[in-house]
């Protein structure tokens, strides 16, 4: 009887040790899974203004029809001289190096031509910046596709180069969000997209084109990652009017920013962060945190202008217009300015890739409390 009791005691002691060991292993496993989940919830994003290829200010300022068609011809010649395919190949290199999950693109120009003074829309594509970029990415073995496209300005005007050489030029401005297509559903699952123009846009009175409205817009993309959904927003705000820019910033908060999801704002905000411009301050007051400021507090990170009118002539940038802002349960790990170096970031012909630098950010979605 005594021996049996001793055996029973030894059994219960052994059972207790096993249970304690299992609990410890479970705790270690939970911690390991927690670390893995945190690591798995890391993502990278990018904002990139591609530069449409010319400046429209002289076109808008034209005082006669003859001057207008000559200015359009000059602008289109600048696009051609700027070698879009070369510049965009450089942007593809930046995407390859950063491998972002999502890319917010601005000034994704589509240039088309048609018969001169023809009232039907020009449809012959000469430069499709989006397709050029997708082709370059595919050539590098990268897997990206547009998940949303927002068309803004779409205008067509004749261009007269000489008495015997003329055609209509059609310019279409687009916002695009690219996403990697080679990720598992646990890493990237599209939940929904929205895209729209702002209700308040700049209106210009012109002598030759009448009253012209310059529409701007935004795209939002909701993505589920490791069981948690976040929202990525790409935008391009007005550059010629600080008042319109501020109104569009407020509308962005009320529309794409109207969510409790962890939120990423990316784009060309045309509001200088280093000067604490009004729109930038409005976004910070709405709870956003500047990823560059958090990760590089002692560096200016200027992104504009890398050149003014000539993409061969480098200009030392003096404003930080291209931003990645975050709000909610999301953490900034690092950020980088790309395409800004006049020594290493030129095309084979010596062109800067864009008049803007791009910005990349490494982020982490925090676990749900």
Explain this structure:
The chain has 369 residues and is of the alpha+beta class. It has one domain (41-365): Endonuclease/exonuclease/phosphatase (Deoxyribonuclease I, Chain A), CATH 3.60.10.10. It is 31% helix and 34% strand. It has helices at 2-40, 57-61, 65-81, 84-98, 129-139, 242-254, 278-285, 291-295, and strands spanning 42-49, 102-106, 110-114, 124-128, 144-162, 165-180, 189-197, 202-206, 210-214, 217-225, 228-236, 263-268, 289-290, 322-327, 330-338, 358-365. The radius of gyration is 26 Å and the shape is globular. The protein starts with a helix and ends with a strand.
On the 0 to 100 scale, the average pLDDT is 92
Low-confidence stretches are: 1-6, 14-23, 28-38
| Number of structurally distinct domains | 1
State the shape: globular
Main beta sheet: strand number and arrangement? Answer: 8 strands, mixed
- N- and C-termini, Cα separation: 55 Å
Q: What is the name of the CATH architecture?
A: 4-Layer Sandwich
Number of helices: 8
Task: Give the quaternary arrangement of the chains.
Answer: single chain
Enter the CATH topology name.
Answer: Deoxyribonuclease I, Chain A
Residue share in helices? 25-40%
**Under the CATH scheme, which class?**
Alpha Beta
Question: What structural keywords apply?
Answer:
369 residues, alpha+beta, Deoxyribonuclease I, Chain A, six-stranded mixed beta sheet, 31% helix
């Amino acid at each position: 009887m005594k021996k049996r009791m001793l055996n029973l005691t030894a059994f219960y002691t052994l059972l207790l040790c096993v249970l304690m060991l299992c609990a410890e292993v479970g705790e270690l496993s939970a911690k390991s899974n927690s670390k893995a989940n945190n690591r798995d919830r890391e993502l990278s994003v990018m904002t990139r203004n591609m530069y449409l290829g010319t400046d429209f200010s002289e076109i808008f300022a034209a005082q006669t029809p003859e001057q207008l068609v000559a200015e359009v011809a000059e602008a289109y010649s600048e696009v051609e001289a700027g070698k879009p395919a070369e510049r965009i190949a450089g942007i593809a290199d930046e995407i390859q190096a950063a491998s972002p999950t999502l890319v917010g693109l601005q000034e994704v120009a589509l240039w088309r031509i048609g018969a001169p003074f023809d009232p039907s829309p020009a449809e012959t594509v000469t430069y499709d910046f989006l397709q050029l970029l997708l082709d370059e990415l595919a050539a590098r073995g990268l897997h990206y596709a547009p998940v949303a496209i927002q068309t803004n300005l779409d205008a067509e005007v004749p261009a007269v180069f000489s008495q015997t050489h003329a055609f209509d030029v059609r310019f279409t401005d687009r916002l695009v969000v690219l996403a990697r297509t080679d990720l598992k559903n646990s890493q990237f699952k599209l939940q929904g997209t929205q895209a729209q123009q702002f209700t308040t846009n700049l209106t210009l009175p012109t002598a030759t084109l009448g009253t012209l409205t310059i529409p701007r817009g935004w795209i939002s993309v909701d993505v589920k990652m490791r069981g948690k959904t976040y929202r990525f927003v790409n935008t391009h705000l007005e550059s010629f009017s600080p008042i319109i820019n501020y109104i569009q910033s407020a509308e962005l908060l009320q529309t794409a920013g109207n969510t409790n999801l962890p939120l990423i704002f990316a784009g060309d905000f045309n509001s200088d962060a280093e000067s604490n411009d009004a729109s930038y301050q409005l976004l910070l007051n709405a709870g956003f945190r500047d990823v560059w400021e958090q990760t590089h507090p002692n560096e200016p990170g200027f992104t504009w202008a890398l050149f003014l009118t000539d993409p061969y002539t480098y200009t030392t940038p003096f404003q930080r217009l291209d931003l990645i802002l975050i709000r909610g349960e999301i953490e900034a790990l690092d950020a980088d300015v790309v395409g800004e170096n006049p020594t290493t970031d030129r095309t084979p012909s010596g062109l800067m890739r864009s008049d803007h630098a791009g910005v990349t950010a490494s982020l982490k979605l925090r676990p749900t409390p």
